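Quick one, tokens below. Sequence please?
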């Protein structure tokens, strides 16, 4: 099979590597890719225009289109392929536009959850014209205060504030001053849930589903989960508190009602569903949906999947995912992300990277990298490269991650050294 993968981050690099392992993969094309993906497939730059992507898919005889990030899905790429007689035969791994609103609109997602009795925090949604009413609603909540930009904000549209005064100022910034542009034209105010987070991933063909390995990611830039939110500083899989009993609750109360709710509303969904959960005293609550895999969780999840991922994609296209046998490695898989100094705010690019050839017994998933004319690898983003390792224990996996991370060098290299520490404390 000929496969086209859209995306350029470490998430897509991990997916690309998994695709290349498949006996069913004849050719893999990646757009726009990064410096690390060169070894996984043919790298092209098709841009974001759907017609360009479709023209390439037709020219190359693409069988499967895998959409790595959310923006094309929210913009309707699956619909564009399905409605064109030239491309309607191509198996698109990703939901239609209407279903992608699970990530495209937090208000839509919350309404979906309440309608389908899926456990989540109490909330209300407000627009600019409702600013006074929104501030009144804030006063009915207990601190800390959770404000979410309704639309896509590159993972930075969720703000948690300790005081009412700060929450009111942030509300002004989001609604009146368009802090997140169109994404914060509406703002969701929701109840704060106290607990520990977990990311659950599901593959679906719109009727059947398979549960992938769960993971826990670390969003804050600083150790002890301090500082600004980022695209993710590391991840761990499996998650120690997500035992059989907990995951049964997740399946019964969240996964199955989600799939059934999509069917009930005629929302066509084929592909990955990311469910961000909070465990509150052992009970799962949904924080958010994403309509693709998470990053950096994918870097810890994909290596744990032993079965053929392309086989799953093929069965999704046929509506026969129930025939797929999901085999998962029992070992721990952990990821540590190396980022540029200053990230997630301003940072410099173009720093020469070295030491990757010295790394052993690990996976290196490139995020923000590029190759120059001399073949050197340069930094090209805030999140630069993910170091992923296996271990019989979490401690063993993380120890090797950090050993290998020390070998990689670039000016301004920054990392968190406490990935998984909270989970290890639970084991004591």
């Amino acid at each position: 099979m000929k496969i086209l993968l859209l995306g350029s981050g470490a998430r897509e690099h991990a997916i690309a590597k998994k695709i290349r392992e498949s006996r069913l993969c004849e050719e893999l094309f990646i757009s726009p890719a990064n410096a690390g993906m060169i070894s996984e497939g043919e790298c092209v730059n098709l841009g974001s225009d759907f017609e360009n992507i479709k023209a390439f898919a037709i020219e190359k005889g693409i069988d499967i289109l895998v959409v790595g990030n959310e923006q094309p899905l929210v913009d309707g790429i699956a619909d564009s392929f399905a409605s064109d007689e030239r491309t309607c035969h191509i198996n698109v791994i990703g939901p239609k536009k209407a279903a992608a609103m699970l990530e495209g609109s937090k208000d839509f997602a919350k309404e979906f959850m309440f309608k389908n009795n899926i456990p989540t925090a109490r909330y209300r949604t407000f627009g600019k014209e409702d600013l006074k009413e929104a501030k009144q609603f804030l006063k009915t909540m207990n601190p800390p205060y959770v404000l979410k930009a309704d639309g896509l904000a590159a993972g930075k549209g969720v703000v948690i504030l300790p005081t009412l005064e700060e929450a009111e100022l942030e509300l002004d910034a989001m609604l009146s001053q368009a802090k997140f542009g169109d994404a914060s034209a509406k703002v969701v105010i929701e109840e704060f849930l106290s607990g520990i987070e977990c990311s659950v991933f599901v593959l679906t063909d719109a009727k059947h589903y398979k549960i992938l390995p769960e993971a826990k990611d670390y969003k804050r830039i600083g150790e002890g989960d301090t500082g600004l939110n980022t695209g993710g500083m590391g991840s761990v899989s499996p998650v120690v508190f997500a035992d059989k009993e907990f995951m049964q609750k997740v399946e019964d109360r969240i996964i199955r009602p989600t799939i059934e709710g999509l069917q009930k509303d005629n929302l066509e969904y084929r592909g990955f569903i990311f469910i961000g959960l909070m465990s509150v005293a052992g009970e799962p609550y949904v924080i958010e949906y994403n309509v693709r895999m998470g990053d950096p969780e994918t870097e810890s999840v994909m290596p744990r999947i032993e079965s053929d991922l392309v086989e799953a994609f093929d069965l999704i296209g046929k509506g026969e995912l129930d025939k797929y046998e999901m085999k998962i490695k029992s070992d721990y898989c952990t990821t540590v992300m190396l980022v540029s100094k200053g990230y997630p705010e301003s940072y410099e690019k173009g720093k020469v990277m070295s030491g990757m050839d010295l790394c052993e017994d690990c996976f290196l998933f490139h995020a923000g990298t590029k190759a120059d004319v001399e073949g050197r690898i340069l930094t090209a983003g805030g999140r630069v490269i993910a170091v992923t390792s296996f271990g019989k224990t979490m401690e063993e996996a993380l120890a090797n991650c950090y050993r290998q991370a020390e070998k990689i060098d670039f000016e301004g290299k920054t990392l968190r050294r406490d990935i998984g520490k909270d989970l290890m404390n639970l084991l004591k």
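The radius of gyration is 21 Å. The chain has 13 helices and 22 strands.
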